[in-house]
């Protein structure tokens, strides 16, 4: 049975604020203190995360696997990079190419995970557009996304957060997101889903 939005919000409220009271102060908020202490604890388990990355590389040898974890986010993130593909362009300058990335996230706040996709468009080496995909993913992302989901679930005994729960609007400030735009996805995983190194 999926974890409820109410429960996940109650967890997120321990780590994210709904106001700007501590902005510009040297003192950190209690939420920030808890968040950073949790990351310190979770980083001790990085060996397990690296095992997952090795398992993904073995299961998906045709793709490049990366670690996209950033401690400003509330999750460990892995990335499955597909090769760049040409995109039709009627311009006479540098050709357009597209790269797709499947991203798997395991929250450090609750035993939940999600998988989503990102698409980058390039003109030469310059990134000119990006877009995050949730359910449904484009067809070419679905098979690697299923592998990532199975591996995350098995290795971390985590439960998938349904898209409708992840999209629940919450009254918290997470990264660049403020109410009413902030969602549980932002609080449990990342405020910057399109940003994958």
- Tally the structural domains: 1
Strand coverage percent: 15-25%
Please summarize the sheet with the most strands: 7 strands, mixed
Tell me the structural class.
alpha+beta
- What is the overall pLDDT average? 95
Rounded to the nearest angstrom, the distance between the terminal CA atoms is 33 Å
Shape: globular
List low-confidence stretches: none
Helix content: 25-40%
Spatial extent as radius of gyration: 18 Å
Number of helices: 6
What is the number of E strands? 7
| Helix/strand order, N-terminal first | HHHEEEEEEHEHH
Quick recap:
The protein is an alpha+beta fold and 197 residues long. The chain has one domain (5-19, 30-188).
If you had to describe this structure to a student in words, what would you say it looks like?
The chain is of the alpha+beta class and 197 residues long. The chain has one domain. The protein is 32% helix and 24% strand. It contains six helices and seven strands; from the N terminus they run H-H-H-E-E-E-E-E-E-H-E-H-H. It has helices at residues 5-12, 30-43, 46-59, 139-156, 163-166, 184-188; strands at 64-67, 75-81, 85-87, 96-107, 112-123, 126-133, 159-160. Strands 1, 2, 3, 4, 5, 6 and 7 form a seven-stranded mixed sheet that branches. Helix 3 (46-59) packs across helix 4. The radius of gyration is 18 Å and the shape is globular. It starts with a helix and ends in a 9-residue tail after the last helix.
Salient structural properties:
alpha+beta, seven-stranded mixed β-sheet, 32% helix
What's the layout of helices and strands?
Blueprint lengths: L4 H8 L17 H14 L2 H14 L4 E4 L7 E7 L3 E3 L8 E12 L4 E12 L2 E8 L5 H18 L2 E2 L2 H4 L17 H5 L9
Parallel strand pairs: 5-7
Antiparallel strand pairs: 1-2, 2-4, 3-4, 4-5, 5-6
Helix pairs in contact: 3-4
């Amino acid at each position: 049975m999926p974890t409820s939005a109410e429960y996940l919000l109650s967890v997120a409220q321990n780590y994210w604020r709904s106001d700007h009271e501590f902005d510009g102060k040297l003192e950190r908020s209690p939420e920030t203190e808890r968040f950073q202490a949790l990351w310190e604890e979770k980083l001790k388990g990085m060996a397990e995360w690296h095992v997952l990355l090795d398992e993904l590389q073995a299961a998906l040898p045709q793709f490049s696997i990366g670690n996209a974890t950033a401690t400003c986010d509330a999750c460990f993130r892995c990335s499955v990079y597909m090769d760049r593909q040409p995109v039709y362009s009627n311009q006479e300058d540098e050709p357009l190419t597209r790269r797709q990335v499947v991203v798997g996230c395991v929250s450090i706040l609750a035993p939940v995970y999600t998988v989503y996709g990102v698409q980058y468009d390039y003109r030469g080496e310059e990134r000119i557009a990006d877009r995050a995909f949730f359910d449904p993913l484009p067809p070419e992302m679905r098979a690697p996304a299923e592998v990532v989901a199975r591996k995350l679930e098995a290795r971390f005994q985590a439960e998938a957060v349904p898209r409708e729960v992840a999209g629940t609007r919450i009254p918290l400030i997470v990264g660049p997101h403020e109410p009413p735009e902030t969602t549980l996805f932002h609080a449990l995983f990342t405020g910057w889903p399109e940003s994958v190194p």
